[in-house]
Design goal:
The chain has a domain of 242 residues: NAD(P)-binding Rossmann-like Domain (Rossmann fold, 3-Layer(aba) Sandwich). The chain is 41% helix and 18% strand. It has a seven-stranded parallel sheet with strand order 6-5-4-7-8-9-14, with helices on both faces. The structure holds nicotinamide-adenine-dinucleotide and thymidine-5'-diphosphate. The site of nicotinamide-adenine-dinucleotide has 31 residues, from α1, α5 and β8.
Length: 372
């Protein structure tokens, strides 16, 4: 039977009569793409959240604390950044206790499929061992932990053919070291609920796009290369399909699951927005032409499209059935691909300093100077 939940401010009332206070939220991986957007969403947009956030991030190549640097000043003690590795049990335990953590929103991961093919080690370590470490620390503090939310991906389900959708009941069949490591972490999270009664929720989301995404992923890479007149590398025949979701919509869904989702339950999140990669790239070319002005030599940016060797084991199609989110959680994405991609391109054009910093690697010098 589904448990009824009622939210009152950031106090969560469970149908059983228990209360969970979301006063001290640990966000892992908050200097990455989705984590940074989630922290901004919670602190800047969710009016009835008055708790504090501790953002723990190791600052790998994908973590850029500058994405949230303004919050350290504007949010006072409602926002703290701590550089730490989620695999470091001692340090993480201290953070749980020093900040009296009662809620965990776990985003930290190695997240890029291409990197996982070349060098899987960090994926196994962070995504599996790191998640286990956090679960174990939460389990040791069960009297205080009201929720452990685990952010995962639709890639755990493997690849679809021409038809069909991933539901929460679809069996796992991960194909890349990345998706296999995320699948493992999902299973461990579920087991900690089943075996120890740890209050968990899990969300499996489709491909995200939006501000602050590291420019190794398809959409930001194409926007930046298109702006600069560089080749746009499309893998294989360009007909692989992804289901794109604007990152803020993912954040609203995660918060909905955290505040209203049933403990122990999994939620698929998606945009009902399937597109072939080549179509995504063509849309980006046309919008960059419109928003940034034409290339100096007058060519359309579509002429920059270059087909390159395919990714090994490249999943053909992902598509999410998010009926559970729509029906049980009354959640819908606000952005269509047309509106979301326009906002995203405009953001990358308007935030050239962030882009240059990441591309030149200067943010790493800044991290070295600030955090050693
Ligand atoms: P990202 O690579 O942009 O950010 C990951 C962050 O985790 C970085 O800031 C990095 O420094 C940090 N990190 C890595 N290893 C760490 C460690 N050992 N200890 C502490 N911090 C560490 O990733 P993202 O795109 O923001 O994805 C966030 C989460 O969402 C991941 O769990 C990913 O699997 C999941 N997800 C991503 C997408 C997507 O399209 N990007 C879709 C569905 C689910
Ligand atoms: P990506 O952004 O890496 O996400 P994921 O592999 O997690 O879905 O890639 C999205 C799609 O775009 C995927 O089918 C691979 C393809 N792709 C390219 O064609 N060219 C590129 O340069 C990149 C990075 C990805």
């Amino acid at each position: 039977m589904s448990m009824i939940t009622i939210t009152m401010g950031n106090q969560l009332k469970l149908g059983t009569g228990e209360f969970t206070m979301m006063k001290h939220v640990l966000v892992t991986g908050g200097c990455g793409f989705i984590g940074a957007n989630f922290i901004r969403y919670l602190l800047e947009e969710v009016g009835d959240f008055d708790g504090r956030i501790v953002n723990v991030d190791k600052l790998t190549y994908a973590g850029n604390p500058k994405s949230l640097a303004d919050l350290e000043a504007s949010m006072g003690d409602r926002y703290r950044f701590v550089r730490a590795d989620i695999c470091d049990r001692e340090e993480m335990g201290k953070i749980f206790d020093d900040y009296e953590i009662d809620t965990v929103a776990h985003f930290a991961a190695e997240s890029h499929v291409d990197r996982s093919i070349v060098a899987p080690d960090d994926f196994i370590r962070t995504n599996i061992f790191g998640t286990y470490t956090l679960l174990q620390l939460a389990r040791e503090r069960m009297d205080r932990i009201g929720l452990f939310h685990h952010v995962s991906t639709d890639e755990v389900f493997g690849s679809l053919g021409e038809t069909g959708l991933f539901t929460e009941e679809t069996s796992y069949k991960p194909n890349s070291p990345y998706s296999a490591s995320k699948a493992s972490s999902d299973h461990i999270v579920r087991a900690y609920h089943h075996t120890y009664g740890l209050p968990v929720t899990i969300s499996n989301c489709s491909n995200n796009y939006g501000p602050y995404q590291f420019p190794e992923k398809l959409i930001p890479l194409m926007i930046m290369n298109a702006r600069e007149g560089k080749p746009l590398p499309v893998y294989g025949d360009g007909k692989n399909v992804r289901d794109w979701l604007y990152v803020r919509d993912h954040c609203t869904a995660i918060w909905r699951v955290m505040t209203r989702g049933d403990r122990g339950r999994t939620y698929n999140i998606g945009g009902r927005n399937e597109m072939e990669n080549i179509r995504v790239v063509e849309v980006i070319c046309d919008l960059v032409d419109e928003l940034a002005g034409p290339l100096e030599d007058g060519r359309s940016r579509r002429e920059l499209i270059t087909y390159v060797k395919d990714r090994p084991g490249h999943d053909r199609r992902y598509a999410i059935d998010c009926t559970r989110m729509e029906k049980e959680q009354d959640w819908l994405p606000e952005e269509s691909f047309e509106t979301g991609i326009r906002k995203t391109i405009q953001w990358y054009l308007d935030n050239q300093a962030w882009v240059d910093d990441v591309r030149s690697g200067e943010y790493q010098d800044w991290i070295q100077a600030h955090y050693g």
